[in-house]
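Sample intake sheet
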Amino acid sequence: MQKQQQIKAATMPDTYLILLAVIIVAFLVTYFIPAGSFQLETQVQADGSEKALLNPESFSLDSAQAQGVPLFAEGGKIGLLNLPFEGLVSGNKYGSAIGVFAFILITGASFGMIMATGAVDRGLIRLISISGKAEVLFIPLIFISFSLGGAVFGMGEEVIPFVLILVPFLITLGYDSITGVLVTYVATQVGFATSWMNPFSVSIAQGVAGLPLLSGSGFRMLIWAFFTLLTLLYTLRYAQKIKASPHLSLAWHSDDYFRSEQPLSIDCNKLTWHDRLVLATLVAGITWIIWGVTVKGYYLPEIASQFFAMGLMCASISVVYKHNEFTANQAADAFKQGAAQLLPAALIVAFAKGLVLLLGGDDPSSPSVLNTMLYSVSQLVTGLHEMVSAWLMLVFQSVFNIFVTSGSGQAALTMPLMAPLSDLVGVSRQTAVLAFQLGDGLTNIIVPTSASLMGCLGAARLDWSQWLRFIIPLQAFLFLLASLAMFIAVYSGF
């Protein structure tokens, strides 16, 4: 069985090769589809603020013929060979490429210092030794907590550090790294997709569609509970199977890293003062982050700084206590190694953003192939039965998420088109928002252009090709559930 798994792993293409194939297809598409743009109009919102929204009837082509993207461009412009660099340096510290890239590296480096102290390993084994039968509650509690995190405040890249903590813990309990990603990242995206109040997706989409904020919350709460329960049951069934037969895991070999790092001969009844101080610092730091995100609205710059502070404090405690002869040089090495382990995942961010730039970017007012694709697909829905139109909206949002994985970005681009289009085909705008939510959120668990997914997989030391083989059945199941939710929404007049 192990030999068969090794052969299969060897024949699967690397994540970068898969993404490169998508990039080449996008490059060729620019020679067949001309760029287009929309005009923006300023609208006054209910609270008196002004917002620039695209006019769905203002689409125009920049040129009658496709221009194509050059192989190499000068002056900071985008060409196929410029893609990695231009993709990496785009955006700012609050998101897009460079902000997410820095966030992944800093959190990885900080956790490298924390894990090097050894306190987390000893704390996990101590926790396992005293947990007893309470272990059965770990996965449901963790899963539901992260699903709520996705639903309430739209967790995404913020999950990466928690994957770094929970994956070694779950492997120590007899599960695998895939289980760790399921109960953290997948749980957040299920909550994100079915949220009734997520400020980064449903609230923006409802605002663009001209709907009252938080309207339709009752139906969305039912969907959240339904999706969360079924995905949790799927996760529990998988986790039990892996615990009974660990070699069945697709991550069995990659998880050797975590198993080899775990101290196997630890007196779990004894935690030193050093261990207690490091663990207390870790708990205090995570509490600080949760408070900052929920109360103060902290995002990537603040969270990265908080994790750096945690790592620096934990390493300093170990150096001062001279625990296991831990030195400042060892802390520095751990910092570098932690960043190096997540560098491959962080670089995916550059390629993902570069793919969008290759198609002209996601600004509706600037000529781009992406705008033309968006407009063309929206016109295909016109004239179809309302049930079919609603389902095609879901399909469109799911596919479009490959190019624009940002929930707020996708809402700003697609909802100005989908909202008036839903009026024409007899679908309510609330249902159009639901199609956006489900299509955007649920496909975040599979698309390799998602920075948060690739960061979590990097933290769990999982290759995307491994993850793809595992997640396809769950993705198909969730898409069927989403289709059912769309049909119920149309039938009930949601």
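Comment: The beta strands are 36-37, 40-44, 50-54, 60-61. The longest helix spans residues 328-358.
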